[in-house]
Write a structure and sequence with these properties.
six-stranded antiparallel β-sheet, Arc Repressor Mutant, subunit A, two-stranded antiparallel ribbon, 11 helices, alpha+beta
């Protein structure tokens, strides 16, 4: 079973959620789709890793008895914990200790000793709270883009951050792993996936998520998942698509 837990207080500005998977029975082809976020991911068997911003869906087989736990940063906020530019982590899963050194090793040791996923989630929150740095105008611009699911003018965002469009593109890649236009596309795709999961018609999904038309929606689904929207969700809500 997959579950998410919302952070409280100041951490809600940087952390979208903590999450856990506890599989009583095997799960096959568990999908993880691009969402603009980066994650910390821990399992007793595989250790503690940082998952870079994704531009392509991945699917996982989850064995019976698995107990995974993680923390999902809001888009553009992971660098405040990691302390490095995150573009090199794009589509990568890297042991955390290779990124931040000793603090990563020490955090894994504490996670190994924790008796429950609930305690592990709290350890991840505490670790992030101890290392975050103050936000700057670029973080606030990315947060504004996230709030509107990518439906924002990049030049306007750059102006609000007090930068040229070129400077903002560079800083966005450093903070979010991708440039602002790619991030906007991923956020729009994520919005479409959430609407589709709630049973909206494909026409309404396209309109509400900000696509020009259904063909535009199909192109993004093919790029990010390799499949059409109908194949991804295996349903026939509304008009056929793809």
């Amino acid at each position: 079973m997959y579950s998410e837990h919302q952070p409280a207080g100041d951490l809600a500005r940087w952390v979208e959620c903590t999450w856990s998977i506890e599989a009583a029975t095997p799960m096959y082809d568990f999908p993880v789709r691009p969402d603009g976020c980066m994650d910390l991911w821990y399992s007793p068997e595989e250790g503690l890793a940082v998952v870079g911003t994704m531009t392509r869906e991945r699917r996982y087989d989850v064995a019976s008895g698995v107990r995974w736990v993680g923390l999902r940063f809001l888009p553009g906020m992971a660098r405040r914990y990691l302390g490095i530019g995150v573009a090199e982590l794009l589509d990568q899963v890297v042991p955390l200790q290779e990124v931040i050194g000793r603090p990563g090793r020490e955090l894994r040791a504490r996670l190994d000793c924790a008796p429950s996923n609930g305690e592990r989630r709290q350890l991840l929150l505490d670790a992030v709270a101890s290392r975050t740095r103050p936000a700057d105008p670029v973080h606030r611009a990315i947060a504004a883009m996230t709030q509107v699911h990518g439906d924002a003018d990049v030049d306007w965002l750059a102006d609000q951050a007090g930068m040229s469009a070129r400077q903002f593109r560079r800083r966005c890649r450093e903070e979010a792993g991708v440039g602002p236009k790619q991030l906007a596309r991923i956020l729009r795709f994520r919005r479409a996936c959430r609407l589709a999961a709630h049973g909206e018609s494909w026409l309404r999904v396209a309109v509400e998520a900000g696509y020009f038309d259904q063909a535009h929606l199909i192109r993004d689904f093919r790029e990010f998942t390799g499949s059409t929207p109908m194949s991804v969700f295996s349903k026939t809500v509304g008009e056929p698509i793809g």
